[in-house]
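User: If only I could read backbone structure tokens as easily as an amino acid sequence. Those tokens are not coordinates but codes from a learned vocabulary of shapes. Could you go through the record with me and say what the backbone is doing? Here is the record:
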Amino acid sequence: MKLAKARKTFGHHISEVLSDTIEHRLFARTLELVPQLNEVYELELAFYESQVLSDEEIIRNGAYFARVGDTFTRHFLICSGEPVRLPKHSSSRLRSFFRTNQFKTGYATHGLFPYRGKFHPQMIKALINIMGLKPGETVLDPMMGSGTVLIEARLMGIKSIGLDASPFCRFMTQAKIDGLTVPLDPVRAALRDARQVFDYFQASAGRQNTERTRIEAGETRDLFEFNNQIDESAQSAQTEEAKLPPGCEAEQVYNFLLLAYLDSAGYSERSARKAPFEQFRAILERYLVAAEKIQNVLSGAEDELAEARPLQGDARNVPIPERSVDGIIFSPPYSFAIDYLSNDAFHLGYMGTDLEKLRQEMLGLRGKSPGEKFELYKEDMEKVLSECARILRTGRICTIIVGTNNNQLSKILGIPPGKVKGIDEILVELGGQHGLKLIRKLERQITGMANTMRTEYIVILQRT
């Protein structure tokens, strides 16, 4: 009798345990997670969001929630519907990636222009939240790359400053920021007259190549300055067929169209699957669809967008006053995995950039041998973290997302992989020397670069 009762009690306990979900045990019943949340670190970030944000803040800026009660979150609305529009010839693998990561990446204008090693925007949104950043405050990304932090912060009403040594990264970030509010009618006109626009940029590419000779001789030229000169003089220097449609000379529209052209031209260099013009037209159509989608969601709330300032500069010498930012997020260059200059060679060449000079200015690319590069990398990162500590307000957070590969480092250092100190550990030690104290480290697996970088760490430091 006692045994039967015990079995009944045990069975009742098991059914109680299994009838409830992790979601309901961790979160209030009014909170519904977004689809595709399938990694432990994501669940952890979602939990932190639920602890530090009010319901209203989750609706406005939450990253991992679809609804609060009966109200859909802005993130859910931004990501819902058709994922990134891809060319018809795109592989099934690529299509599957964007379907299964619809709420993580590719939404808003993040999907404009492919860039290796970029953040998952959803993760950045969550980190901005759990770092305690609020609308009106300022976040810095001293190595902004493709501008993910700046775009997310702008959407969240948080001011942002981005810095990158690459002039192309500065331009790409500005064009993607512009895409959030770019006037759509001129872009639609550009798509209708895609051949005319394509011919215009092909003609300007010729002038850029001429300009490159001057830069290699020692002169530097800013892309935005050069574009303005094209605006003033191009019409008289070109044939009727090479003119832009009316309204396309406006800075926001021009940047948007030029990024699409550079995207298509770079792709055409790598693949002959489509003719260059057809590639341009398909990419411009994709850009327009992305801009239309995000602007539809933001309609009526444009005044809530915050200022975003992408700059070209050196993370070892940030042009910002002491104690002037409320948070810092960045990812050091994956210098042992990606040669960013080779990856961007066409676009930098179009802009007339001296690649060898830029190589000497970029972190992780200086030096001749792998060992020398690694030592200079550590030296440079110490300077970067010193700058972060200088400009970050006391008590605020600096988050570093960094991949590591002990096998690769073991070859460079000539020691067994098990004895290698990961880059994440090195950065924690360097940060500690400048008053940046480790308070949390999360681990996530890198799926897109598994053969090179296997693990990525989210290192959260606090300014003491």
Remarks:
- Strands lie at 31-33, 65-68, 71-72, 138-141, 159-164, 308-312, 325-330, 392-404, 436-445, 455-463.
